[in-house]
Design goal:
Blueprint: H1 3-23, E1 29-30, E2 64-66, E3 69-71, H2 82-90, H3 97-100, E4 110-113, E5 124-134, E6 136-137, E7 144-145, E8 158-163, E9 188-192, E10 196-202, E11 212-214, E12 241-246, E13 252-257, H4 262-267, E14 271-277, E15 288-289, E16 293-294, H5 300-305, E17 308-317, H6 319-322, H7 331-341, E18 351-354, H8 361-365, E19 368-370, E20 375-382, E21 388-392, E22 397-402, E23 405-406, E24 413-415, E25 417-420, E26 425-431, E27 444-449, E28 467-471, H9 485-491, H10 494-497, H11 510-513, E29 518-519, H12 523-551
Helix pairs in contact: 1-12
Length: 552
């Protein structure tokens, strides 16, 4: 056989083998445009369906009094631990040991003392915060530690400020889940106008951080002449602590956040709402609102005008940035990848959070539960990277303050879309009087960012910061909406956000809109596979045989 003929046959063998591989039938195949059936395909890796409301502590929803602290009823599925609220109101130094042991707070997490103006409430407040990592890589194996799901199956790397805590960082010995006070977002902090406040950052983290009091009245330096503005040049390094001092003269809704490599650290979660309440007699404020959401012990001033109060903190995450702490344990690698290799100008916002969660978890603890004919106060802060256009269905709300400064009556706006720039805060009146303007009537009304990416979780919709305004008559005894059963069943399946199932995986339109099914290979394709595969094999044998004979 001539070399030319041999090369030609080798090329033909390669072509036939490639054709056979392309035509090879691997059992049932994905259906194409003319798929005759639709089959729901579940991913074994992604997990399964969760209960919309786990209902772990139904007793926490009740109105109750603990150590003399009155705690309002919560209508939501996932309410705050009332013992945490009692500790936040009285101070960890003023509650019983039995109450303190029902929290995870350290004995000096929030100390309240000295009624300096003799009006029945403490005026010296000492607060201690730590920086905690959630969903980070474990040095003990290929798993995440201190886990916190923002949505079914979604665990991005996060940092949060948290009240100084005691005991394990984990929920218990049998799980990798973080304990309940170690969660996103960083807690809302409340103090009273004129209080002497000392806010200490005890940095137990492996990177430097600060606390910048954004909009909060504070001197540039402490009484000892040290940094008091939390700027990057005065970073608090690992193992160190620093105390910021203030005596705020102006009441309003403010912000606090880390100001070390601000672009990265804020997008990792290090921000929270800071509220200065108006000075009133006997005004024991709820210094920590862990996880934000409903304020179950509102201030005296708020109770004079409103039936309920909610803190709403919006954040966004870049999964590329978040993954840095999940792919390394060496702090030098993390610092290099985050500081020098990560470029925020080329980044994306993949996850959009309301009070630390994305839909559908926002329905558990980000839901605004309301009754008819109420006046509800919303404190809204945009800590995400992009502007927001917050829209509440079925209602128009009135903006009463911007960035902690009250708006005069003459310039207050009543709107159904609120423009909120990054780091901006709005105080909002939500009235549920059914007058065709403030409310169209009772129901389960959606509220969300009308910039459409805010409604998604890594591109999947519904997701993101979508939540609900639910009137009490439309909520079940677990605080879940009665009219959203099928939608929630789909959204509480981890396969949905793993992109392994379509939005309409079940129901009457499954065959039309669901997953394309598997079909049997076409008979002609099978024949072509046999001919090309057999031809390639035969020619290969022929080439080997002739080559053997020639060498012999």
């Amino acid at each position: 056989m001539t070399p030319k003929k041999r090369y030609l046959l080798i090329s033909l063998v390669a072509a036939l083998a490639g054709t056979a591989w392309w035509l090879a039938p691997f059992g049932l195949e994905k259906g194409g445009a003319l798929s005759p059936a639709t089959v729901y395909t579940r991913s074994a890796e992604a997990g399964g369906t969760e209960k919309p409301c786990p209902d772990e502590h139904p007793e926490w929803r009740q109105a109750q009094t603990i150590d003399g602290v009155s705690i309002d009823e919560a209508l939501s599925c996932d309410p705050d631990n009332p013992y945490d609220i009692a500790a936040a109101v009285k101070g960890t130094n003023n509650i019983s040991m039995a109450t303190l042991m029902q929290t995870r707070m350290a004995q000096d997490a929030v100390v309240k003392k000295d009624d300096l103006d003799h009006d029945g409430d403490p005026d010296v407040i000492e607060i201690k915060l730590e920086v905690v990592e959630l969903n980070g890589a474990s040095p003990d194996g290929e798993f995440l530690i201190n886990t916190f799901d923002i949505a079914p199956g979604i665990k991005p790397g996060l940092w949060v400020f948290a009240p100084k805590s005691q005991g394990m960082a984990l929920k218990n010995f049998f799980t990798m889940q973080a304990n309940p006070i170690l969660r996103a977002p960083s807690p809302t902090i409340r103090v009273e106008q004129g209080d002497t406040v000392k806010l200490t950052l005890e940095n137990i983290h492996y990177l430097p951080h600060t606390i910048h009091l954004h909009g909060v009245d504070h001197p540039f330096m402490t009484a000892a002449g040290e940094d008091n503005d939390g700027m990057e040049e005065h970073a608090v390094f690992p193992g160190a602590s620093h105390t910021y001092e203030m005596k705020p003269r102006h009441a309003g809704t403010m912000l606090y956040h880390c100001h070390v490599q601000t672009a990265q650290h804020m997008m990792m979660g290090l921000s929270g709402i800071f509220v200065v309440e108006e000075n009133k007699p006997n005004n024991w404020v709820q210094t920590f609102n862990i996880g934000a959401g409903q304020v179950r012990h509102p201030s005296v001033k708020v109770k004079e005008e409103y039936s309920r109060e909610f803190d709403l903190l919006y954040q966004s995450l870049d999964k590329k940035l978040s993954s840095i702490i999940q792919n390394a344990n060496d702090t030098r690698l993390i610092a290099k990848r985050m500081s020098r290799e990560y470029n925020i100008t080329e980044s994306h916002e993949n996850y959009f959070l309301l009070n630390g969660h994305s839909f559908p978890y926002t329905v558990r603890d980000g839901l605004i539960a309301a009754g008819e004919n109420e006046n509800i106060k919303l404190r809204i802060a945009n800590a995400q990277r992009s502007p927001m256009a917050l829209h509440i269905h079925g209602h128009k709300v009135t903006v009463t303050a911007t960035d902690g400064a009250d708006r005069p009556e003459a310039v207050r706006e009543t709107r159904d879309v609120l423009d909120i720039a990054p780091a901006q805060r709005l105080d909002v009146d939500l009235k549920t009087v059914n007058d065709g303007l403030h409310s169209y009537g009772p129901g389960v009304w959606m509220f969300h960012d009308h910039a459409s990416n805010g409604e998604t979780t890594d591109g999947m919709e519904p997701g993101g910061n979508i939540s609900l305004l639910g009137y009490q008559a439309y909520l079940d005894d677990k605080g879940m909406p009665k009219m959203h059963g099928e939608m929630l069943d789909v959204a509480f399946d981890k396969n949905y956000y793993a992109k392994n199932q379509p939005p309409w995986a079940v129901g009457d339109f499954t065959e039309m809109l669901g997953e394309p099914g598997r079909i049997e290979p076409h008979i002609l394709k099978l024949a072509a596979f046999g001919l090309s595969g057999g031809g390639a094999f035969g020619l290969l044998v022929y080439l080997l045989f002739t080559g053997y004979r020639r060498r012999k």
